[in-house]
Amino acid sequence: MTIDEVLAATPLLGVADPRTISDLARSSRRRTVQRNEVLFAVAERATSIYVVVSGTFRVFTSSMQGTEPTLALIHEGEMVGELGVLDDVPRSASIAALRRSEIVEVPAESFRTAYHSDPAIARQMVTMLAERLRRVTDGLADLAYLDLGGRLAKYLLNESQRQGRPTITLTLTQSELGQMLGGARQTVNQVMHTLEEAGLIVLEG
Predict the structure, then answer these.
(1) Are the CB atoms for 74 and 118 separated by under 8 Å?
(2) Which of 98, 139, 151, 171 gets the most CB atoms within 10 Å of its CB?
């Protein structure tokens, strides 16, 4: 895919005028990010937004205890970093590649120009922010009302739907799953085997 096509395929920029996409593409560049390489870190100034062409990234923070809990995953075709560019506030989380990945990097100033000149982008941003807020609300409800088994089962079902097939590849380790779902690695392992014994999943590898 060309940079124009990558940008136009994102939910946010897919509504933009083709001339806006062309202007953004001219100032953007493709980059390869190696496994575990940090794309940007918490408290850094936002200088770019990024579109994932291939690979997977994790969103994480660092705790007082030295752990780095995974908050979310960013997959192929998704964009990250746009909020920090728009409000000019330092990054609130860090992003690192889970495996060798390719991205398109869009300079902050170019994105701000497109955002202010193309009303369709601003309207789409509001829609996307509402969707993110709903996901956060759903996540809080899951923590309140579902045990770890329920949260893990829901995550696996969502991953199956996202990947479009019943057999899925997990990009997170059991420790990372535990950090994201609110449980210890050992408990995640036990729940995985409980789900398998119940005939709900089959573990391979």
Answers:
(1) no
(2) 151
> How many residues are there in the chain?
205
What's the token pair of residue 73? 């995953």
In this structure, are residues 114 and 16 in contact, taking their beta carbons and an 8 Å threshold?
yes
The sheet with strand 57-60 has its strands ordered as 38-40, 94-97, 57-60, 70-74
CA–CA distance, 6 with 49 (Å, rounded to integer): 13
Q: Per-residue pLDDT tens for 15-34?
A: 999 999 999 999 999 999 99
Phi, psi of 122 (to 5 degrees): -65, -45
148-163 and 185-197 are packed helices; what angle lies between their axes, rounded to 10 degrees?
70
- Distance separating alpha carbons of residues 31 and 176, to the nearest angstrom: 26
- For residue 59, report the phi and psi dihedrals to the nearest 5 degrees: -100, 130
Cα distances from 70 to residues 144, 175, 184, in angstroms, run 19, 10, 13
At 130-185, the pLDDT tens digits run 998 898 898 888 888 899 889 898 989 988 888 888 888 887 888 888 888 888 88
User: What is d(CA 148, CA 182) in angstroms, rounded to the nearest whole number?
Assistant: 7
What is the Cα Rg of the chain in Å? Answer: 18
Q: 121-127: list long-range contacts, CB under 8 Å, 24+ apart.
A: 121/12, 121/13, 121/15, 121/16, 121/20, 123/15, 124/11, 124/12, 124/14, 124/15, 125/12, 125/82, 125/86
